[in-house]
Amino acid sequence: MRWQHPEMGLVSPAKFIPIAEETGMIVIIGWQVINKVIKQLNEWTANGYCLGKLSINLSVKQIQQDDFIDKILASLQTYQYNPEHIQFEVTESYIMTDPEQAIKTLQQLKDLKFTISIDDFGTGYSSLSYLKRLPVDELKIDQSFVRDVPGDEEDEAIVRSVISLAKSLNLHVIAEGVETKEQQKFLLAEHCENLQGYLFQRPADVAQITELLEKKIK
């Protein structure tokens, strides 16, 4: 998500999302994003494009709303999409604010056939006793640990540990923030086959992504 500002141009979410979180506007923005993504998913699907799964980030404030699940159910009824095509990403810090409630809410999403990913894993101090109970499908290694590999022994050890932990729990694992061939080579050697970052694709708008999908099916 980017903000197209009339004077500043394209503004990074790193600049405006924290303000939206602080003011509570993130809840409104979050639902706008979900609705727009689902509409676009339906359009791509109707045009024969196969995307696999589309990931949507959920904010802490949004998922903590009392009517969160009710609104998800309403979106399913309104847009008639397949929840198995959607993956929700939640931060580790959200889970640790109220682990029992997080387990309950995430299980409700799982029961609706959505998949769940823990974003920024390794930064939220989660307890392993909770991790094994969480109804999640994937761990995402935070980019702060990927940035200095290979070369930083501590970050290398953390990355190896998260990969090992995920595999031992039968979870998918994906590394965020991959920007160099050296990082890619290191991660693949450590058996982390799912990578995300500017090395592969920079943020793109709908037209650019549609063009990429068109090339894929040709």
Description of the structure:
- This protein is α/β, with parallel strands linked by helices and 218 residues long.
- The protein folds into two domains: 1-104, EAL domain (TIM Barrel), CATH 3.20.20; 137-218, no CATH class.
- 51% of the residues lie in helices and 15% in strands.
- It has helices spanning 13-23, 26-46, 60-63, 68-79, 92-97, 99-111, 128-131, 143-146, 153-168, 181-189, 206-217; strands at residues 3-5, 9-11, 54-57, 86-91, 115-121, 138-141, 172-175, 194-195.
- The strands form two sheets. A six-stranded parallel sheet has the order 3-4-5-6-7-8. It has a two-stranded antiparallel ribbon with strand order 1-2.
- Helix 10 (181-189) links the parallel strand 7 (172-175) and strand 8.
- The longest helix is centred in the first third of the chain and has 21 residues, at 26-46.
- It is globular.
- The mean pLDDT is 91.
